[in-house]
Design brief:
Blueprint (H helix, E strand, L loop, with lengths): L15 E9 L4 H11 L19 E7 L4 H10 L2 H9 L6 E7 H5 L16 E7 L3 H8 L31
Antiparallel strand pairs: 1-2, 1-4, 3-4
Length: 173
């Protein structure tokens, strides 16, 4: 019998979770708010801009503190992309801080798609920063799945995806 999955959120676990995004030009703040709510439904006190009128020179930075990650983590499990998540979330790990991006267009569809380093996709991204002691262990726990009993993983191991997001092909001998 498999033990039930531990439900992590990041909040009240000794971590600070901050989500940032930038809204520019004709980007619709209401639609971005919908995308944000699809991934972070329990985030509070976010002031989203209204739909812009044309022409718009808006350039607004939004930062939300103490954002629970439970919905994002549940979606990672549902999408079965936990090893990809471990790699993407840990790529910029520096001590007890990591930063990664997820695409806003995918969020509109209720999906998590990680952004590639140096690439800003059409529709923009949410930048997620997680900081706190024991972050490496938390990332491993948050992305754990039963397959790791057979093929263990660590951050930055030889099974990690390449820097350009390509999967590394590997097999057990």
């Amino acid at each position: 019998m498999t033990a039930p999955r531990v439900r992590l959120t990041g909040v009240d676990e000794g971590l600070d979770v901050i989500v940032r995004t930038r809204i520019r030009g004709a980007e619709d703040g209401e639609r971005i708010a919908q995308a944000f709510s699809a991934l972070f439904p329990d985030a509070r006190d976010v002031a989203w801009p209204a739909k812009p009128t044309y022409p718009s020179e808006q350039d607004i930075s939004i930062e939300v503190q103490q954002v629970p990650l439970d919905t994002v983590l549940t979606k990672l499990h549902e999408q079965r992309i936990l090893d990809t998540a471990l790699d993407a979330m840990g790529t910029n790990l520096d001590g007890d801080v990591t930063t990664f991006t997820v695409e806003r267009v995918a969020a509109m569809a209720g999906k998590v798609t990680f952004g590639l380093p140096g690439h800003t996709p059409l529709g923009g991204v949410f930048t997620i920063e997680i900081r706190g002691e024991g972050l490496t262990d938390w990332l491993l726990a948050a992305t754990h799945h039963p397959g790791r009993a057979h093929v263990p993983r660590q951050l930055g191991d030889e099974r990690a995806m390449d820097g350009d997001g390509e999967a590394v092909t590997w097999f057990e001998r």
